[in-house]
Design a protein that fits this description.
383 residues, Thiolase-like, 3-stranded mixed beta sheet, EC 2.3.3.10, HMG_CoA_synthase_prok, Hydroxymethylglutaryl-CoA synthase, transferase, binds acetoacetyl-coenzyme A, single chain
Length: 383
């Protein structure tokens, strides 16, 4: 049976910071951010916008009333959870009006969780071909003002509808996963920001790609030549390129050029958004589908990486007519219509924390933003 991604969309909040402005404010050469890190803009959010806000806005772009009747599982991958116990997927299930006889839960392993959710969904559809699964990856990547990780922040969500006979990407059931207990990036309970060993995280990412890619090639007797494009988890756009360059070392120059050209198409959106943690690989996939010239039947490789660490390489085959399922115009309009913030506005927004224990009402025009908090329970602005 063919199982995979039937629909896919992303949502980012309507604000960004220009990386030249951030560099100048931090007394850094702007080329470090634009070239060295590979970021042009960074998405930022108001305190009244959380992972549920982003998840619901991304999912509403793709779901029809018929889908809502057929979905029997909602999985949210996140490392920015708003509750230690109750899953954001349960709130999302209600906000979206999905039929009641469904499972809804949250899943965690740093930036890998979106892929864990996708693979769980695929396994479920293989047993229940008539059902559909909503997979969402939603996060707020924050490292702190003037911190080393600041230029690699970002925020937003990806929503995917997983089904049998998918109309975008059929997954090839060829995953190779790798688990290693390494502290390169982690966030202990109670900490607002992650602990991160930046250089170790870069090295571990590159080595993890090399390990799963080598194992994948051996198990499946495949090489770069079998892929039309490879797309990566993108904590910042230079990262995937560094891993790719290391693996491409022994390839002919024209083969390197072919693969790198497609990588550039996969980072068009991330350059304007920053890190989405769990959603980053899938923002890269959307960017590739919407910005590269691709044809049905072509093979796409996907590298998922979550610090701590779990990595996975898997692949998919583009389905005939996939281009008719894309929401290119909506996505590009969304990015273009955001408001650029001054550094002062960004810092004020960053420091404006949600008072999770205070009973209060809020006034944010964004759909599914937090409308009030009462007894620590969040209510969201609905249609
Ligand atoms: N012009 C052009 N390039 C310049 C430059 C200039 N004026 N100045 C510096 N650069 C280059 C550097 O040469 C370097 O390039 P290479 O990596 O190719 O050597 C690049 O800019 C970055 O410079 P530094 O290494 O000095 O940057 P830094 O020490 O300030 O930190 C970072 C970079 C480690 C990524 C930091 O931003 C960070 O800790 N980020 C968070 C962690 C992270 O994203 N890790 C990625 C792997 S972990 C993961 O993938 C999971 C996840 O999502 C977090």
């Amino acid at each position: 049976m063919n199982v995979g991604i039937d629909k896919i969309s992303f949502f980012v909040p309507p604000y960004y910071v220009d990386m030249t402005d951030l560099a100048l404010a931090r007394e850094v050469d702007p080329n470090k951010f634009h070239i060295g890190i590979g970021q042009d803009k960074m998405a930022v959010n108001k305190k009244t916008q959380d992972i549920v806000t982003f998840a619901a806005n991304a999912a509403k772009n793709i779901l029809t009333d018929e889908d809502k009747k057929q979905i029997d599982m909602v999985i949210v991958g996140t490392e920015s959870g708003i509750d230690e116990s109750k899953a954001s997927a349960v709130v999302l299930h209600r906000l979206l009006g999905i039929q009641p006889f469904a499972r809804a839960f949250e899943i965690k392993e740093a930036c890998y969780a979106g892929t864990a959710a996708l693979q769980y969904a695929v396994a479920h559809i293989n047993i229940h071909p008539e059902s559909k699964v909503l997979v969402v990856a939603s996060d707020i990547a924050k490292y702190g003002l003037a911190s080393g990780g600041e230029p690699t922040q970002g925020v937003g969500a990806i929503a995917m509808l997983v089904s049998a006979d998918p109309r975008i990407l059929q997954l090839n059931n060829d995953s190779v996963a790798l688990t290693q207990d390494i502290y390169d990036f982690w966030r202990p309970v109670g900490h607002d920001y992650p602990m991160v060993d930046g250089q170790l995280s870069n090295e571990t990412y590159i080595q993890a790609f090399q390990k799963v890619w080598k194992e994948y090639q051996q198990r499946h007797k495949k090489s770069f030549a079998d892929f039309h494009a490879l797309t990566f988890h993108i904590p910042y756009t230079k990262m995937g390129k560094k891993a790719l360059l290391a693996a491409l070392e022994d390839e002919a120059p024209e083969e390197q050029e072919r693969i790198l050209a497609k990588y550039e198409a996969s980072i068009v959106y991330s350059r304007q958004v920053g890190n989405l943690y769990t959603g980053s690989l899938y923002l890269g996939l959307i960017s590739l589908l919407e910005n590269a010239k691709l044809k049905a039947g072509e093979q796409i490789g996907l590298f998922s990486y979550g610090s701590g660490t779990v990595a996975e390489f898997f692949s998919g085959t583009l389905v005939g007519g996939f281009e008719n399922q894309l929401l290119t115009e909506l996505h590009q309009k969304q990015l273009a219509e955001r408001k650029g913030l001054s550094i002062t506005e960004y810092e004020e927004m960053f420091n404006d924390h949600l008072e999770v224990d205070a009973d209060k009402e809020y006034d944010d025009a964004l759909l599914y933003s937090i409308a009030s908090i009462s007894n620590t329970v969040r209510t969201y602005k609905e249609d």
